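Quick one, tokens below. Sequence please?
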């Protein structure tokens, strides 16, 4: 618990309210309790203040005040982190970015959006969805976590396998440095000149500064989505199938959504179902243990055969016929 004298606390609260406006500062112990931990509830600490800035200038002014008063400060998004990253030091300031949650600009021609850090991850996909776009990094917490928190933790999700993690989707950042200076890192294109400071910032867990604007890539939604369910009786076989799919460059060709790809997916699904049926049939015979082992090896080889032998030529043909997709 902080030991800040009440008089100093009242004066600082007043000063913080002058920066962020009335209603933008919490300092009562009951209110502060909500911010005493993130998803890692094992560790808890109470700040002196939780502050809700609305702009980069607000953030810079609060950071300068914290420096002047020698108060520790930490940025906070939605608090879904699982590593205690937004935990306050005992006392000091938490800067909650939740009021900075706007999509500032969308440039559909260049597939770029400029957003504020408190924007909930999924809300960006909702915003650009009606025009056929989405934001690819999809942590499982995407209904709650913020793009600012995603940047600090370089978050990823199921789309990561094909599209990469957050760092692969951030082009530029406006950042408030630890001394309160506001700077821009990167730009609006993939190959900004100079050192890759955006790449250094993303994944730095909030230790390099506070992101106040973020330029992200948005992607075109695939024209069709097909779900394939394959059932395996051994984990090794399932793992081998995944490796084969990656090895056959299927991920690079998926998402094209044309007729060729749909045919390829149907053939792929049908092959797996056939393989599973045949495999179930001969596994039901009372084979000797040695023969059973041999049968399992045949299973394994057949999975490779189906994926690499059947699917790759189709995927390659599709690839040749559609070379204009990312
Ligand atoms: C149910 C559940 C599922 C999850 N699934 C995934 C998953 O699939 N993949 C994954 O990667 N993670 C996952 N996480 C972890 C967490 O959701 C992510 O790390 C997420 O990116 C945190 O975002 P947040 O807005 O909650 O950030 P917070 O928890 O508030 O903060 C996280 C870090 O970011 C810093 N920070 C916040 N905003 C800024 C800013 N504007 N500038 C600089 N630093 C900032 C904080 O100081 C802190 O260090 C999951 C968590 C839960 C609870």
């Amino acid at each position: 618990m902080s030991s800040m004298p009440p008089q100093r606390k009242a004066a600082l609260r007043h000063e913080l309210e002058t920066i962020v406006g009335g209603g933008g500062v919490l300092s009562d112990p009951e209110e502060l309790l909500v911010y005493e931990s993130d998803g890692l509830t094992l560790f808890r600490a109470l700040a002196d203040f939780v502050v809700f800035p609305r702009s980069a200038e607000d953030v810079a002014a609060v950071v300068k005040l914290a420096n002047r008063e020698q108060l520790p400060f930490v940025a906070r998004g939605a608090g879904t982190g699982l590593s205690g990253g937004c935990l306050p030091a005992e006392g000091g300031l938490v800067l909650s970015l939740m009021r900075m949650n706007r999509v500032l600009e969308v440039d559909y021609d260049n597939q770029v959006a400029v957003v504020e850090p408190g924007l909930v991850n999924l809300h960006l996909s909702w915003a650009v969805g009606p025009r056929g776009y989405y934001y690819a990094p999809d942590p499982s917490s995407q209904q709650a976590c913020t793009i600012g928190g995603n940047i600090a933790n370089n978050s990823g999700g199921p789309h990561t396998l094909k599209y990469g993690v957050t760092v692969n989707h951030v082009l530029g950042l406006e950042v408030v440095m630890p001394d309160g200076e506001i700077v821009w890192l990167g730009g609006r294109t993939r190959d900004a000149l100079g050192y890759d400071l955006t790449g250094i910032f993303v994944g730095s867990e909030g230790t390099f500064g506070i992101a106040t604007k973020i330029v992200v890539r948005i992607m075109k939604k695939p024209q069709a989505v097909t779900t394939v369910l394959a059932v395996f009786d051994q984990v090794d076989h399932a793992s081998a199938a995944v490796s084969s799919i990656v090895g056959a460059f299927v991920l690079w060709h998926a998402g094209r959504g044309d007729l060729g790809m749909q045919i390829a997916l149907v053939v792929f699904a049908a092959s797996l179902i056939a393989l599973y049926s045949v495999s179930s049939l001969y596994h039901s015979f009372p084979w000797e243990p040695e023969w059973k082992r041999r049968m399992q090896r045949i299973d394994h080889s057949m999975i490779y055969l189906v994926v690499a032998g059947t699917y790759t030529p189709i995927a390659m043909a599709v690839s040749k016929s559609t070379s204009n997709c990312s």
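Residues 235-321 form one domain. The two ends are 53 Å apart (CA to CA).
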